[in-house]
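Dear H.,

Thanks for agreeing to be a second pair of eyes. The structure we're designing against is below in token form, covering all 759 positions.
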């Protein structure tokens, strides 16, 4: 039946081996008494020159062809034939994969092994050292199962909840911000620039509207419950672009430097045209008018505030840092007024204010200097402070929801979420949080290099109620990335795309109907719970998208199953799903970027040669490390500075930062400093009860806020656990404190019960 050559690299040749074996059996079944023969050497012709490879392939082929399909005769080199049972396990696996075309990499794997065998032949001839053997592929072995692994997935009734008491109990926001008097919040209000004392309470009488959904009354009803009901009953509508609408206004009306300044800033020290957020103060009728157009023409359920750049960092361009509270307050207040006026006309369709928190014009993960990859123009703590002030202004102005949006650097987003977390802790409120990432091109990655899945894994600790994508791309170009997110996001999902890609003039060409058609694929596949528009979209665009969405059901929340440790670098990694190169269900943590684990690394760090140190990290990833351990503990080294510099450089190296990091130090302040430069979800190594229960809880709480996993050593106040009983006792005590008191996710705890020397 013709033995033909396999392993050529041509797809149509890949099944020649298995096709011969299957055909042999069928021919013998339908043609009684015949014999089957073939020229066996044809099979491996592509590997000529390396007899061991060729005869190993023949051995596997003949084993199956003879014993399973009944092949009778063959032209072979009898002297070189190898028995199937004499094959090395890894060689047997390579041959099985190749002959039966089991994996797409089968030919490449065999070519790698062939190169090794050829190098061995040459080394023997020349008396040289034998080359290192390729690891090859091993079958994945099953993970040890425990009772809690057999959790059957259950339907989700709502997105994952934050651990605060208010969120867990769905406590309604009272909208009485005057009762929130934390000193940090009070200090921000004290320096506010508002000409008159701002009205910061926004509660409504409980009998304003009827009690049941779809009605909503601030102070009476849980917004978390309302959004869950809304997002599971239909696809909710967000608004469209604020900038586009301001530009459209300027085409029909005078909107120059004079109008931007208004009477309030007529003598300002620099030009302010282009500072759209400032218009909430100087031209409030324009901004409120845009809000109302999206509500009344577009039919938006939720509208974003005109506060995209209202942070001290972004306002530095206009020297208006002191006005940040007022900008956010006014942006939210105008939206609150517009929403309340439209809701009053139809109380069955309440409208909500989404406090828009933009990315700022600086990045925590990207160096502004070509010469110095460790350079940064902003720190994590500076971002947190800027975002915190913005959050206070938005909430005092009447925002219902907080949205961290247009994320091109996940580290900035983590800082914003940290600031929101601080506000929620100080206020005791339950405020729904939305998060929206931006994938900058068809690579499906953020500007800082993360995939959509890695972006989600990095921010999911904040328990956002809705996650999605906006800006940079039109809906058509977003489709594959939205699909991927829909398969992994545990909460609600949204999209607000651009009206296509920008044209040569920087404008957007998609008409309302075009944009609605482009979004249709999201609705047909049931991927979304909320939809809107970004650059180039207008109220008619939102109206068309809304009308298109009305005949489709919203995305169903995924079932809730066993929790898993979900780490991320530039790419995501679920630890429970990992197998190493030996087929073991085991996470390889590379140790060579640890001063204690590599003398070479130590010398490089002591000499300040970070570039060569990165090569060590890259080699570890190439050799199979799933996570890179970073430890710079040495008495002769400034660990705080060295950790930060190494991490800042490492996150700019794609071949290093594609995997998660394990930040490893004996001093907690060193790992914390490194953590503030990591956009992904890291592992911190380590904390323990050695420092006492109170400090242990304090450190664990801080790590939980940063969203990292943690290694917990089996130490307590009395010392190191050496016996089985002590290891179990200390780990169980640590677990109970972490899970029951700190509310630390149990799947993010790694115990180190102390591997001690034997023999």
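And this is the sequence the design step returned. I haven't edited it by hand at all.
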């Amino acid at each position: 039946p013709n033995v033909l050559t396999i392993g050529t690299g041509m797809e149509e040749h890949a099944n020649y081996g298995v096709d011969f074996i299957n055909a042999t059996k069928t021919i013998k079944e339908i043609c009684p008494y015949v014999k089957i023969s073939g020229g066996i050497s044809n099979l491996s012709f592509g590997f000529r020159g390396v007899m061991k490879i060729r005869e190993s392939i023949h051995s596997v082929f003949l084993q199956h062809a003879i014993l399973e399909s009944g092949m009778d005769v063959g032209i072979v080199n009898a002297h070189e034939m190898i028995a199937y049972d004499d094959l090395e396990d890894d060689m047997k696996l390579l041959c099985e994969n190749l002959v039966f075309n089991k994996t797409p990499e089968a030919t490449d794997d065999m070519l790698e092994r062939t190169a090794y065998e050829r190098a061995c032949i040459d080394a023997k001839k020349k008396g040289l050292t034998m080359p290192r053997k390729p690891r090859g592929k091993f079958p994945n072995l099953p993970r040890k199962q425990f009772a809690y692994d057999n959790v059957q997935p259950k339907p989700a009734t709502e997105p994952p909840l934050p651990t605060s008491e208010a969120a867990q109990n769905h406590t309604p926001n009272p909208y009485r911000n005057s009762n929130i008097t934390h000193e940090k919040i009070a200090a921000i209000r004290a320096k506010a620039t508002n000409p008159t004392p701002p009205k910061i309470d926004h509660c409504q009488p409980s009998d304003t509207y009827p009690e049941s959904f779809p009605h909503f009354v601030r102070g009476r009803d849980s917004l978390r419950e309302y959004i869950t009901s809304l997002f599971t009953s239909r696809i909710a509508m967000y608004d469209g672009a604020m900038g586009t609408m301001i530009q459209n206004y300027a085409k029909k009306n005078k909107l120059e430097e004079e109008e931007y300044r208004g009477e309030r800033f007529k003598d300002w020290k620099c030009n302010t045209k282009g500072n759209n957020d400032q218009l909430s103060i100087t031209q409030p009728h324009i901004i409120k008018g845009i809000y109302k157009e999206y509500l009344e023409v577009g039919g938006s359920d939720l509208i974003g505030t005109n506060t995209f750049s209202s942070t001290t960092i972004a306002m530095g361009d206009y020297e208006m840092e002191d006005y940040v509270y007022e900008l956010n307050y006014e942006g939210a207040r105008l939206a609150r007024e517009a929403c309340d006026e439209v809701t009053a006309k139809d109380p069955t369709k309440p409208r909500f204010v989404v406090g828009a928190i933009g990315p700022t014009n600086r990045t925590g993960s990207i160096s502004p200097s070509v010469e110095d990859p460790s350079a940064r123009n902003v720190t994590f703590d500076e971002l947190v402070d800027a975002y915190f002030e913005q959050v206070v202004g938005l909430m005092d102005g009447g925002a219902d929801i907080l949205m961290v949006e247009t994320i091109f650097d996940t580290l900035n987003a983590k800082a914003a979420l940290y600031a929101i977390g601080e506000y929620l802790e100080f206020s005791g409120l339950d405020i729904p949080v939305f998060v929206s990432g931006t994938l900058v091109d068809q690579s499906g990655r953020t500007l800082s290099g993360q995939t959509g899945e890695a972006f989600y894994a990095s921010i999911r600790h904040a328990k956002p109620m809705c996650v999605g994508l906006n800006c940079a791309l039109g809906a058509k170009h977003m489709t594959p990335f939205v699909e991927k997110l829909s398969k992994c996001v545990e909460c609600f999902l949204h999209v607000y795309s651009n009206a296509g890609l920008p044209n040569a003039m920087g404008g957007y060409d998609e008409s309302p109907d075009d944009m609605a058609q482009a979004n249709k694929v999201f609705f047909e596949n049931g991927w979304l719970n909320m939809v809107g528009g970004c650059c180039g979209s207008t109220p008619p665009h939102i109206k068309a998208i809304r009308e298109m969405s009305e005949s489709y059901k919203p995305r169903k929340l995924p079932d809730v199953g066993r929790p898993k440790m979900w780490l991320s670098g530039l790419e995501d990694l679920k630890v429970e799903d990992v197998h190493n190169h030996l087929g073991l269900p085991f996470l390889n943590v590379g140790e060579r970027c640890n001063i204690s684990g590599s003398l070479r690394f130590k010398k490089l760090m002591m000499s300040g040669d970070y570039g060569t140190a990165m090569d060590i990290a890259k080699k570890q990833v190439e050799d199979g490390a799933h996570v890179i351990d970073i430890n710079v503990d040495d008495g002769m080294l400034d660990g705080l500075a060295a950790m930060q510099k190494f991490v800042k450089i490492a996150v700019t190296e794609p071949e290093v930062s594609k995997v998660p990091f394990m930040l490893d130090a004996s001093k907690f302040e060193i790992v914390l400093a490194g953590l503030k430069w990591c956009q992904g979800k890291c592992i911190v190594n380590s904390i323990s009860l050695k420092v006492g229960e109170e400090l242990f809880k304090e450190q664990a709480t801080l790590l939980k806020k940063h969203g990292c996993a943690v290694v917990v050593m089996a130490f307590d106040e009395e010392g190191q656990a050496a016996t089985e009983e002590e290891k179990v006792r200390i780990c169980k005590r640590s677990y109970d404190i972490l899970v029951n008191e700190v509310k630390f996710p149990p799947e993010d705890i790694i115990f180190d019960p102390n591997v001690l020397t034997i023999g």
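Two observations from my side: The first strand starts at residue 236 and ends at 237. The chain is about 40% helix and 10% strand.

Warmly,
E.
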